[in-house]
Amino acid sequence: MQYESVDQLNKAIEGILEIKGNSVAVLDEAKLKGALIDQIIYTGVFASDQAARDMSRWVIRRAGASLGVLSASIQTLYEAMGRKEVSGFTVPAINIRSLTYDCAQAVLRAAMKGKVGPVIFEIARSEIDYTDQRPAEYIACVTAAAIKVGYKGPLFIQGDHFQINAKKYAADAAKELKAVKDLIWEALEAGFYNIDIDTSTLVDLSKPTVKEQQFLNYSLAAEMTAMIRDLEPEGVTVSVGGEIGEVGGKNSTPEELQAYMEGYLEELGKAGKNLKGISKISIQTGTTHGGVPMPDGTIAKVKLDFATLEKLSEEARVKYGLAGAVQHGASTLPDEAFDHFPATKTAEVHLATGFQNIIYDSKAFPADLREKMYGYIKTDLAADRGKSDTEEQFIYKTRKKALGPFKKDLWDLSKPVLQALGAELEKQFAFLFGKLNVNNTQDVLSKTVKAVDVAMKKP
Fold first, then answer.
1. Phi, psi (5° rounding) for residue 423?
2. pLDDT confidence of residue 290
3. First to last CA, the chain
4. Are 365 and 357 in contact (CB under 8 A)?
5. Helical segments of 70-172, H only
6. CA 382: distance to chain centroid?
7. What are the CA-CA distances from residue 128 to residues 77, 142, 190, 278, 329 (Å)?
8. How many other C-beta atoms are found inside a 10 Å radius of the C-beta of residue 173?
9. Which residues share a beta bridge with 18?
């Protein structure tokens, strides 16, 4: 059920929520956590009336704030990691591509049971497009999930791979740079206080020196960092990430880290005195996003370069005060690989495709809907098929692009199906939290991060 107007929404919340200026008081938390929050977030995603969508999202965010659910920056925790005051775990960053409301509930249920402190919810520039989730919608879904399960505390919402497209940049640099800057602005206004800038696509390995190879990468990263510092809300220092090697490319080296950081800090210094720089650095160690599908549809085993991960993490902390290195493309790694991340003091690990696979491949997922989505892929997305791809490879690599066109079908799955999928996802999240050693870290988080209630004007 959804509300088709602001008037309908206002009538539905009477006696449960009270709007006071630019704040929302929760009068009956139990009733809010029942069917009402389900209906408000559904309205915030699918209502045909834009005003109803905007008001629903605002009500969720402000009701969350009154309950102690606040969007926050992970900056101060990462600074503590950079000073080596905090260690022993790797922060999971989870990309939710589908069923965001239900999936986020599964994350938070597992986190609450394990007394997990830091966990990041993120969405990449490419995912925003093909999953049809703009930043304001995404953060409202995660906040609604927190309300639903009774989570109280900071929510780390991250823009992942806010990436410059190399081909588009070559064709029209100003236009492509503006597109990424506009997305950063949109995300900040929505409440994303963690932004990963990815200009590693512009690294030019044909240049004679490592610093020249990294020039466009670090100079544009510094330019966008300065923009973020200008736009971030009062009292919030956005956690910014940089990247020295494109995921799926050659493995990163200490020389690249040094060249990037020296150039980046020089350029940032030109932009303004005492501007806070990046808090972490993403590197390439042998993974690819989504894994490499074999002709039969299975995923090839990857040999991850943990020695490089450990070495660059340590150099990032000692030389530059960063939290450490970030590992991308990890969700399809074998189970035994995840113990190595906290052992090598990896700061953050990004996890995405594995959860999408759980949803698609679950026995609980309706076979008729799966076939309908696969039919769409074979017809509407046929141009994406590689010349040597088997059908299994093509579907595996492309099925993420069916999530946006079939978003409503997925949200409208029956309650038993959603509960079954949620249970499978929760089990995997709990497993990963254990492997990454983030269980029982709530005290660490409460000592290092103080969330700020950033004012939001009523639509």
1. -65, -40
2. 44
3. 22
4. no
5. 75-82, 100-113, 125-130, 135-149, 166-171
6. 28
7. 27, 15, 13, 23, 17
8. 14
9. 25
C-alpha–C-alpha distance, residues 256 and 357, integer Å = 34
Domain 70-358+417-448 has CATH 3.40.50.10190: no
Which H or E element spans position 75? helix 75-82
Alpha helical stretches, state H, 150-209: 166-171, 173-190
Q: How confident is the model at residue 246 (pLDDT cuts 50, 70, 90)?
A: low
For residues 376 and 353, the answer to whether their CB atoms sit within 8 Å is: no
Q: What is the pLDDT of residues 407-441, one digit of tens each?
A: 999 999 999 999 999 999 999 999 999 999 999 99
Give the pLDDT band of residue 305 (cuts 50, 70, 90): confident
φ/ψ (deg, to 5) at 172 = -155, 90
| Strand 17-20 to 23-26 pairing | antiparallel
Q: What are the two backbone dihedrals, phi and then psi, of residue 160, each rounded to the nearest 5 degrees?
A: -95, 145
Residues 6+ apart with CB under 8 A from 279: 74, 75, 78, 79, 82, 239, 240, 241, 322, 323
Q: Locate all alpha helices (DSSP H) within 191-231, ordered by sequence.
A: 210-231
Could you tell me which residues are beta bridge partners of residue 160?
124
The whole-angstrom separation of Cα 190 and Cα 133 is 12
Map tokens 């950079």 to a residue: 82
| 344 contact partners, CB below 8 Å, separation of at least 6 | 306, 309, 310, 313
Residue owning tokens 């994406």: 384
Whole-model pTM over 0.90: yes
> Where along the chain do the CATH 3.20.20.70 domains lie?
70-358+417-448
Structure-block tokens of residue 264: 């980046």
The Cα–Cα gap between 391 and 295 comes to 8
Burial class of residue 54, CB neighbours in 10 A (0-12, 13-18, 19+): middle
Of the candidates 94, 37, 44, which has an alpha carbon nearest to the alpha carbon of residue 69?
37
Instruction: Quote the CA–CA distance of 100 and 45 in Å, as a whole number.
Output: 11
Burial class (CB in 10 A: 0-12, 13-18, 19+), 57: buried
What gap in Å lies between CA 315 and CA 89, rounded to an integer? 18
